[in-house]
Design brief:
Elements: H1 2-12, H2 15-35, H3 48-59, H4 69-72, H5 75-90, H6 92-102, H7 109-119, H8 127-157, H9 159-174, H10 193-208, H11 210-219, H12 227-251, H13 263-275, H14 292-304, H15 317-331, E1 338-339, E2 342-343, H16 346-374, H17 381-392, H18 407-422, H19 424-431
Antiparallel strand pairs: 1-2
């Protein structure tokens, strides 16, 4: 009976719908494990709602927390969170492909279509090899970072604990999850070059996307790279440089953040906070103490996020790049939209526009709901907008609202993290009916714009 139901679901469920369902099931499995008394350091259950929030944040590689990860959860609970982050970052289908290969099972066409949807690949060719590369890349970078951080921390906490802390933060950083075992994230290492460089490289490489990393590894030449890889690398570089410069300039006037830091520490802090809104979730200075201008800048960077096919969230840097090109092209009088001597299809532009509009609508709706559920005053609206954007973009940064959320607020943010990880288009495709081509042609007319 159960087998028949599963087979029926397989034949009647589209790949996006199946992705939604499996993520949903994984979240509940994680929540049930985290709800166990054994997962808590006190031996008492943290409750279903807190466990569900944490599991969603981990599987959606978000990083928002309602209870402190390092002190509230036992080692078992932290390992569960670490495993959820790894599965959520790699994608359940990538993990499934590796398991299937190890047991000698064939990867069928339907499984390839699901992998294509989950990895945002433009072709169904070579997806099994891509999945293998994804796992190897993730494990290689996580292993190297674990070794580096273990050597850095062993003098402070011993080899065993240093290795465990290094592994946890390496997995969390590469998958852009932002979970930390310190209550103040990585603030104790604000001026530490080893920790800063290691963690920044991890979440930037993870955020670029496996397709880009594989493309760079294989071709090793800017001219030979795909258009997608060039757009992602250029866009990411511009946003990283802009984030660093603006935060350094703004926060240099803020005694609450940069006031107690040396000149070198200020540079490291600006580098870290300029990069982390791209979906990492770690912080080395208190976000709530930053200037309103810096906080709003972080909101913008969080909304843009990382790249398609990566471990980060947001509308994606490539999406924003396409819309900027389309806007510039419109100002110049229209015509063909192109970049790096390649034409960009109008369908790509419309898809990018749909992602931005739907994402903006979700962020505004969530902000409205949180304003109602939390009873916040007008002067706290930036805090609400920050939280909503962070949840949807799966960044995980917070100005301090998360730990004070009401039960209804936790539910709203949980749903937002789920929707943000899967993406508005995936949700739309999953919920949409079969395509119906219209048999009626209508005459063209005009609407005034601007």
């Amino acid at each position: 009976m159960l087998v028949a139901i599963v087979n029926r679901l397989k034949t009647r469920t589209s790949p996006p719908q199946l992705i939604l369902m499996i993520f949903f099931c994984l979240i509940w499995v994680g929540a049930l494990l985290l709800m166990l008394p054994y997962s808590s350091s006190s031996g008492q259950s943290i409750g279903l709602l807190n466990a569900l929030f944490t599991a969603t944040s981990a599987i959606c590689v978000n990083g928002l927390v309602v209870v402190d990860t390092g002190s509230v959860f036992s080692t078992f609970g932290q390992i569960v969170i670490m495993m959820l982050i790894q599965v959520g970052g790699l994608g359940f289908m990538t993990v499934g492909v590796m398991v299937a290969i190890m047991i000698g099972k064939r990867i069928g066409l339907r499984q390839r279509l699901i992998i294509q949807q989950a990895t945002h690949s433009t072709s169904s060719q070579g997806l099994v090899k891509l999945s293998i590369f994804m796992v190897l890349i993730a494990f290689a970078f996580e292993a190297m970072a674990t070794l580096v951080l273990t050597l850095r921390w062993q003098a402070d906490m011993g080899w065993g604990q240093a290795a465990y802390y290094a592994l946890f933060h390496s997995i969390s950083a590469f998958n852009n999850a932002g979970f930390a075992l310190w209550s103040d994230s990585l603030s104790p290492f604000v001026g530490d070059p080893v920790v800063n460089i290691t963690v920044i490289l991890l979440f930037i490489i993870g955020g670029l996307g496996y397709i880009v990393v594989v493309d760079v590894f294989r071709k090793r030449s800017w001219r030979k790279l795909s258009l997608h890889a060039k757009v992602v690398l250029l866009g990411s570089g511009i946003l990283f440089a802009a984030g660093f410069c603006l935060i350094y300039l703004l926060e240099s006037w803020n005694p609450a953040t940069f006031g107690s830091l040396s000149a070198g520490e200020r540079i490291w802090a600006a580098l870290f906070q300029g990069a982390t809104p791209r979906s990492s979730g770690f912080n080395t200075i208190d976000i709530g103490s930053m200037l309103a201008a810096s906080q709003f800048l972080i909101i913008i960077l969080m909304f843009i996020g990382a790249a398609s096919g990566g471990t980060g969230g947001g509308i994606k840097v490539n999406t924003m790049f396409v819309l900027v090109l389309a806007t510039i092209n419109t100002f110049r009088g229209g015509g063909q939209i192109h970049a790096f001597e390649r034409k960009i299809a109008i369908e790509t532009v419309m898809r990018a526009l749909a992602v931005v509009i739907s994402s903006l609508a979700v962020v505004l709706l969530v902000s409205l709901l949180l304003t109602i559920s939390e009873g916040m005053l007008e002067e706290h609206f930036l805090e609400i907008l920050f939280e909503a954007t962070s949840a949807f973009s799966t960044t995980g940064l917070s100005m301090g609202l998360t730990s004070d959320l009401s039960p209804l607020g936790k539910i709203i943010v949980t749903i937002t993290m789920y929707a943000g990880r899967l993406g508005p288009l995936t949700l739309a495709f999953a919920l949409a009916q079969k395509k119906r081509s219209s048999k009626i042609g209508y005459p063209e007319d005009h609407i005034l714009i601007g």
